[in-house]
Write a structure and sequence with these properties.
About 85% of the residues lie in helices and about 0% in strands. It is an all-alpha fold and about 150 residues long. The longest helix is centred in the N-terminal third of the chain and has 30 residues. The radius of gyration is 16 Å and the shape is elongated. The termini are far apart.
Length: about 150
């Protein structure tokens, strides 16, 4: 029973992280200028990616017979508020938006890393989480490369 509790908590934390990621990219889309359609397409792809991850994680929570979290993390809400405040001072330029997105991607990577380091995680869930972390790493690297390209 203890492992089911640990597994459920980890899965729900990752569901919330993916919810944060979706909300963050929705916010980033709202901040984009009309000529930034390439970023809008990329951010919509990131939203789809998180929704796919959430669907898999949700299914695993249901298999464990637990309740699925539907909200976002407190830190995610605080981060989105911070993005609002920062935008007042720095604007909604491409580099700022990409910096904010990379910050969010770093947070997701950290959450997945911490999940994988948790004892009591079943082998099946460890595999799912590792696969999702690798998928998100690719997205992180894509955002970082775009951000670095704008920086120069």
């Amino acid at each position: 029973m203890e492992n089911n509790t640990v597994n459920t908590e980890i899965l729900n934390d990752l569901i919330q992280i993916n919810n944060d990621r979706v909300r963050g990219y929705e916010k980033a889309i709202d901040e984009l200028a009309a000529e930034e359609s390439d970023l809008k397409s990329l951010f919509l792809q990131m939203i789809r990616q998180s929704n796919q991850h959430k669907a898999i994680l949700t299914q695993e929570v249901q298999v464990l017979g637990a309740t699925v979290e539907t909200g976002t993390t407190t830190s995610g809400k605080i981060y989105r508020t911070w993005m609002d405040v920062k935008a007042v001072f720095t604007g909604h330029d491409r580099k700022t938006i990409l910096n904010n997105c990379e910050f969010g991607e770093d947070a997701a990577q950290n959450a997945y890393k911490m999940a994988l380091e948790t004892g009591g995680l079943s082998a099946n869930l460890r595999s799912i989480i590792a696969d999702q972390k690798a998928d998100l790493r690719s997205s992180h690297d894509q955002i970082k490369a775009l951000r670095d390209h704008v920086a120069f």
